[in-house]
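testing teh design pipeline on a random one, pls ignore if ur not involved
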C-alpha cells in the first residue's frame, strides 16, 4: 500500500523519548502475559489459553490484532520465530509498528501474513526495514483476519540474530589497494553474493524477441489470445492504433473497450526496438501508432498513460509515459511526429518546473502530482513522489541533447538542485535511478555539478517516502533473489518485473560517466539478471506460481507481475495483484512488466565464462552523444579470470576507463582479456590509428569521448 507524508523532525524525537522511558525489553515469556496484550488496533479479543496467546476477531470487525506496545527488541535482531498451534481463520499475521528506521514517520513492517495452519515460521527481517541497533521502542502486533469469531493461537514468539549467508563475502573497502582506486557502491550490494545460487542465466535477448513475436501476433489462438488488438477509436489521431492487454486475460480492456496503457504498449515497442526489431512495418507501423498516446483531444499535449487522461493523480504515471516516448524517439529519429511530440512534452514539463519553482529557481517536487490544468501541485494526503524531479531531469536532459536547446538543460539542472537538497531517499516507483543518470551525464558533460550523482546508494537502500520500497537482498526459499526492485516489507518481499528491468536500464549507462561505480553496478546486475528468471513460468514449480493453469505461452516468455518471498506457504512464488485482490484480470501474468524485457535483453550478453556478463553501457543511454562500443565486465570469482571478447574485424584498441589506461591495441576478432578477481572493468573499443586528444579532463578518440574522468598522470599497476 502506498503511504506518504512527513513528520517534523522534532515531534518524533519528543515522542520517542517519552515512549522509550515507558518501554521494556521484549522476552518470549511476555507472550503469555495477558496484561501486555490488548488495546488497539481494532480491539482484538485476547486471552491466554493452554495453546498460547489466543487472538480472536471481535464483533463487527474483519480483522483484529493483539498489540504489545513500547517494546525494545533484542539488540541485533535479524529474524523472528513464531509458532502457531491452532488457526481457525482466513489468515494470521505478525507485524511491527513504530519508528523502525530511526528517521521519518512511524511505519508498519509486515513480517508475515498467510493462510496456513499450525506451524513454525522463521522470518528474516531486512536490516533496512528495521535498524537493529536503533533502540527505538516498537509495537508488536499478532493478528487474525476473517469474520467475527475467527481465531489463531500463538504458542511462541522470539526475536533472534540474523544468520550470515555463506556465499556472501565480507564487504570491500571502497579503496582498492590493488589499483589505488576508489570503487564506490552500496553496502546493500555488498550484502549480495558474488556468485548467486542456484545460477542460471536466461538468454535475455532471445526472451525479448520471443516476447515480441507472441505479444504482436494477431493470429494467435487459444484462451486469452491474441494479446493484441487494433484500435479504431481515433481519439487523438485520425489513424488506426493498437492495444496490448496489461495482463493476460485482462477483462477491463480490449476491442471496443480501449483502456490500453502506454506503460505497456509504448514500452513493448521500445523494448523490441532495443533488441534489433524494426517496429515500423511492413504491415503495421507500431512506432507511428504510439503517437496516439499524446493527449491532443483534451488539449494537454502530453504523452500520458491512456488516450483521455487528466493529470494530478500520480507524478510517475504522468511522467513515465513521456519518458518512454522520448526513448522511442531516440530509436527512430525524425520518424513521423516523434520529435515534435517529444519536444512538446518537454516544453510542458519545463512549464511545470517553472510553476513549481520558488524565488531561488529550485522547483519543489515534494508533492503527489502536478495538475497541468491549474498549473499547481497536488497533494492527496496519502503519499508524495519527490523523485518526480529525477524523471523530469532525465526528460529535460534528453530533450536538451536531442534539440540542442539550453532551456532544457537549465530545467534539468533545476530539478537536480531540488534532489540535491532533498536529504532523504526520494525513491517512489521507477524514476529515482534516472535522476542519478541525469546528474552523472550533466556533470560529465560540464553542464551541471549536482551531487545527486553520488546518491546511487538510494537506488539500493529503502525509500523514505514510500515505506519498504527498495532493492531486494536475500535468499527466498533456497533461491538467491538479490537485486530485484519492489517492496521489502510486504510479507517479507515483493519484487516487480517492470521496476527491476527499468532500473537496470537507468544504472548500467551510469558507469560511462562515473566509472567508480563499475564494481557495484556489475555485481548488482549479475544478481538481478540471474534472479529475474524467477519472474517467468518455466523457472519455478507449478505450485510456486499462481497462474500455471494458463497454457497459452509454451515458450514461457510472459513474466508474472512480480515475485513474492512467500505466498500461501510457497517460497518464492511468482504472482501478481489481480488474483489476490480480485480486481478483474484472470491471471497474474503481466504484459506491462514483460514489455520491458527488451531493456535487459539489449544490455545483457553472456561471455565464455558463464558467470561473467557483458553489459552494454550504450544500449539504454538514450539521446547520448557519439560514443565507441562500451561494455562493463564484472568478475565474481576470487581469482583473476580471462574471457574472450569479440571486437569485430576492424583493428581496435581496448581502453579501460576505470584504470585510465589502454589494454591490448591493434587487435581484431576474438581477443582474450583478463578481469581481476572480484573487480569490474569498463572497456571501450576504439578504432586503431585514430586521433587521440585530451580536452578538459576528457579523453577523446576520433572526436568521441572515451573517458569522462581521464587522469593521464596517474599510474596504476598493470593487470595480468
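output:
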Amino acid at each position: 500500500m502506498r503511504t506518504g507524508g512527513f513528520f517534523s523532525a522534532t515531534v518524533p524525537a519528543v515522542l520517542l523519548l517519552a515512549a522509550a522511558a515507558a518501554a521494556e525489553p521484549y522476552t518470549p515469556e511476555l507472550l503469555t502475559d495477558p496484561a501486555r496484550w490488548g488495546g488497539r488496533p481494532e480491539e482484538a479479543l485476547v486471552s491466554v489459553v493452554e495453546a498460547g496467546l489466543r487472538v480472536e476477531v471481535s464483533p463487527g470487525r474483519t480483522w483484529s490484532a493483539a498489540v504489545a506496545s513500547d517494546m525494545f527488541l533484542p539488540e541485533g535482531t535479524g529474524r523472528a520465530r513464531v509458532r502457531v498451534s491452532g488457526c481457525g481463520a482466513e489468515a494470521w499475521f505478525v507485524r511491527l509498528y513504530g519508528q523502525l528506521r530511526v528517521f521519518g514517520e512511524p511505519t508498519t513492517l509486515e513480517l508475515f501474513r498467510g493462510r496456513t495452519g499450525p506451524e513454525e515460521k522463521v522470518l528474516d527481517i531486512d536490516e533496512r526495514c528495521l535498524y537493529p541497533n536503533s533502540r527505538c521502542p516498537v509495537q508488536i502486533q499478532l493478528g487474525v483476519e476473517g469474520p467475527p469469531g475467527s481465531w489463531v493461537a500463538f504458542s511462541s514468539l522470539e526475536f533472534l540474530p540474523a544468520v550470515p549467508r555463506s556465499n556472501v563475502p565480507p564487504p570491500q573497502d571502497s579503496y582498492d589497494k590493488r589499483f589505488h582506486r576508489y570503487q564506490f557502491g552500496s553496502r546493500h550490494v555488498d550484502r549480495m553474493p558474488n556468485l548467486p545460487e542456484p545460477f542460471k542465466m536466461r538468454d535475455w535477448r532471445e526472451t525479448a524477441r520471443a516476447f515480441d513475436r507472441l505479444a504482436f501476433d494477431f493470429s494467435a489462438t487459444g484462451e486469452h489470445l491474441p494479446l493484441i488488438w487494433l484500435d479504431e477509436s481515433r481519439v487523438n489521431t485520425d489513424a488506426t492504433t493498437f492495444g496490448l492487454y496489461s495482463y493476460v486475460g485482462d477483462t477491463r480492456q480490449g476491442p471496443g473497450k480501449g483502456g490500453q496503457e502506454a506503460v505497456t504498449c509504448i514500452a513493448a515497442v521500445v523494448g523490441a526496438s532495443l533488441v534489433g526489431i524494426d517496429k515500423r512495418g511492413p504491415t503495421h507501423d507500431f512506432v507511428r501508432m504510439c503517437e496516439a498516446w499524446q493527449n491532443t483531444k483534451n488539449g494537454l499535449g502530453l504523452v500520458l498513460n491512456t488516450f483521455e487522461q487528466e493529470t494530478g493523480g500520480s507524478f510517475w504515471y504522468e511522467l513515465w509515459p513521456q519518458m518512454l516516448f522520448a526513448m522511442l524517439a531516440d530509436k527512430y529519429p525524425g520518424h513521423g511526429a516523434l520529435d515534435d511530440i517529444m519536444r512538446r512534452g518537454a516544453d510542458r514539463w519545463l512549464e511545470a518546473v517553472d510553476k513549481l519553482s520558488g524565488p531561488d529557481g529550485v522547483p519543489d517536487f515534494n508533492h503527489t502530482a502536478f495538475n497541468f490544468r491549474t498549473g499547481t501541485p497536488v497533494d492527496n494526503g496519502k503519499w508524495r513522489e519527490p523523485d518526480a524531479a529525477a524523471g523530469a531531469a532525465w526528460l529535460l536532459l534528453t530533450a536538451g541533447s536531442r534539440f540542442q536547446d539550453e532551456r532544457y538543460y537549465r530545467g534539468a539542472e533545476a530539478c537536480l538542485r531540488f534532489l540535491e537538497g532533498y536529504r532523504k531517499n526520494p525513491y517512489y516507483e521507477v524514476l529515482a535511478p534516472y535522476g542519478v543518470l541525469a546528474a552523472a551525464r550533466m556533470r560529465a558533460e560540464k553542464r551541471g555539478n549536482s551531487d545527486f550523482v553520488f546518491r546511487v546508494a538510494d537506488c539500493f537502500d529503502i525509500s523514505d517516502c514510500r515505506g519498504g520500497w527498495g532493492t531486494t537482498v536475500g535468499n527466498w526459499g533456497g533461491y538467491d533473489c538479490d537485486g530485484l526492485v519492489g517492496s521489502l516489507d510486504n510479507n517479507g518481499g515483493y519484487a516487480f518485473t517492470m521496476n527491476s528491468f527499468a532500473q537496470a536500464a537507468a544504472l548500467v549507462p551510469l558507469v560511462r560517466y562515473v566509472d567508480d561505480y563499475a564494481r557495484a553496478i556489475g555485481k548488482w546486475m549479475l544478481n538481478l539478471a540471474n534472479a529475474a528468471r524467477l519472474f517467468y513460468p518455466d523457472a519455478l514449480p507449478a505450485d510456486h506460481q499462481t497462474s500455471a493453469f494458463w497454457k497459452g505461452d509454451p515458450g514461457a516468455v510472459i513474466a508474472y507481475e512480480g515475485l513474492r518471498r512467500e505466498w500461501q506457504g510457497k517460497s518464492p512464488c511468482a504472482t501478481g495483484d489481480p488474483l489476490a485482490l480480485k480486481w478483474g484480470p484472470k491471471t497474474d501474468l503481466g504484459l506491462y512488466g514483460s514489455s520491458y524485457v527488451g531493456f535487459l535483453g539489449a544490455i545483457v550478453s553472456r561471455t565464455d565464462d558463464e558467470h561473467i556478463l557483458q553489459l552494454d553501457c550504450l544500449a539504454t543511454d538514450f539521446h547520448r552523444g557519439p560514443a565507441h562500443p562500451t561494455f562493463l565486465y564484472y568478475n565474481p570469482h576470487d581469482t583473476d579470470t580471462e574471457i574472450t571478447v569479440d571486437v569485430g574485424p576492424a583493428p581496435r584498441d581496448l581502453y579501460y576507463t576505470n584504470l585510465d589506461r589502454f589494454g591490448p591495441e591493434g587487435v581484431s576478432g576474438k581477443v582474450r582479456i583478463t578481469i581481476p578477481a572480484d573487480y569490474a572493468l569498463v572497456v571501450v573499443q576504439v578504432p586503431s590509428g585514430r586521433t587521440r586528444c585530451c580536452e578538459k579532463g576528457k579523453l577523446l578518440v576520433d572526436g568521441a569521448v572515451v573517458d569522462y574522468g581521464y587522469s593521464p598522470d596517474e599510474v596504476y599497476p598493470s593487470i595480468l
